[in-house]
Design brief:
Layout (H helix, E strand, L loop, with lengths): L5 H24 L4 H6 L4 E8 L11 H7 L3 E7 L4 E7 L13 H18 L3 E7 L3 E8 L2 H13 L9 H11 L5 E6 L13 H15 L1 E8 L1 H4 L6 E5 L6 E5 L3 H24 L3 E6 L5 H16 L1
Parallel strand pairs: 3-4, 3-6, 6-7, 7-10
Antiparallel strand pairs: 1-2, 4-5, 8-9
Length: 310
């Protein structure tokens, strides 16, 4: 990454510090224990055997030791104490858009920081993959607050070579570099470009890759959206530009039926994609630049925890 000029460096430090303070406060106040409950204990290691006590699970009895000692003994396990978290972050040009206080990219950076600080608080490793239509940057999983702050700086200020999105390519890269199972947050707006193939859509191809990744890792698709992507304001005729392809299109936002069709089609497309993820056992967490996502994230963690306990 090129060295920023002094003024830009100050802006970097200011934004990073703001998000660091907010993230640490949220980890302490709003998400205390939620992260740990949602993800810890995915693996268990055998620790010891001990004598059976009333209330112990019969399934945990070690029959070999029981036979030798002529009294019931049960196996004890301990939860896996260290996880590897990977943040795969979409830096395509569509993330620059934001109709409210923050752009989608800034919102993704804030959520990524919150997840990274939560992992650091629980002594977990955190890795980073930044991508557009190509892999822009990779930070191998590591620990420590300085590593977390570097992750945040990279997401906010990395100068990208590409503008488009290749979600499938990012997943393939992830599966090559991460040999051991990890908790993977795929953070994107999931604006999937059309591949022009009549036989198989780009969405179908992506879903196959997502399912392949799901079998290797604990995958969570994390989708950011902006209110203006779902509902057009009535501002007359406007020209829209696709940030990734440069394509221009003129629309008449004063046409009420057009606005309703757009809203309904967008909602149906997003709902269909989420349902297809669900059918494949892939977790999904969606949030908007226009709302505080902390409550949604906490509820998502609770769902994960209840599923683990079931």
């Amino acid at each position: 990454m090129d060295e920023p000029n002094p003024e830009f460096a100050k802006e970097i430090l200011r934004k990073v510090r703001q998000i660091e303070i907010r993230s640490n406060r949220l980890v302490s106040e709003a998400l205390a224990g939620s992260y740990h409950s949602a993800f810890k204990g995915q693996g268990i290691d055998f620790e010891e055997v001990r004598e059976y006590q009333p209330g112990d699970e019969v399934r945990s009895i070690d029959w070999n030791v029981t036979a030798k000692m002529n009294t019931p003994f049960v196996k004890q396990y301990r939860e896996e104490r260290e996880l590897t978290i990977v943040l795969a972050v979409d830096l395509s040009a569509s993330g620059i858009f934001g109709s409210v206080k923050q752009s989608k990219r800034e919102r993704l950076a804030e959520l990524a920081a919150l997840l990274a600080f939560s992992a650091d608080r629980n002594n977990d490793k955190v890795g980073l993959i930044l991508f557009t239509e190509e892999i822009e940057h990779y930070l191998p999983p590591s620990k420590g607050q300085q590593h977390v702050l570097r992750i945040l700086r990279e997401i906010l200020f990395r100068k990208t070579k590409g503008k488009g999105t290749n979600l499938r390519g990012s997943l393939r890269f992830l599966n090559r570099v991460m040999r051991r199972r990890a908790v993977v947050f795929l953070l994107s707006d999931f604006q999937i470009p059309d591949n022009g193939d009549d036989e198989e859509s780009a969405e179908d191809i992506l879903l196959k890759e997502l399912f392949t990744t799901r079998r290797r890792h604990d995958l969570i698709c994390t989708r950011v959206s902006d209110p203006r992507e779902n509902v057009f304001p009535d501002v007359g005729r406007i020209v829209l530009e696709d940030a990734e392809t440069g394509e221009l299109i003129e629309v008449n936002t004063s046409d009420s039926p057009f606005r309703e069709r757009y809203k309904d089609q967008n909602r149906a497309r997003n709902t269909d994609f989420e349902q297809r993820l669900l059918r494949r056992g892939i977790d999904h967490f969606g949030f908007s630049t226009g709302k505080d996502y902390v409550k949604q994230l906490r509820e998502f963690f609770k769902i994960r925890e209840s599923r683990r306990r079931a």
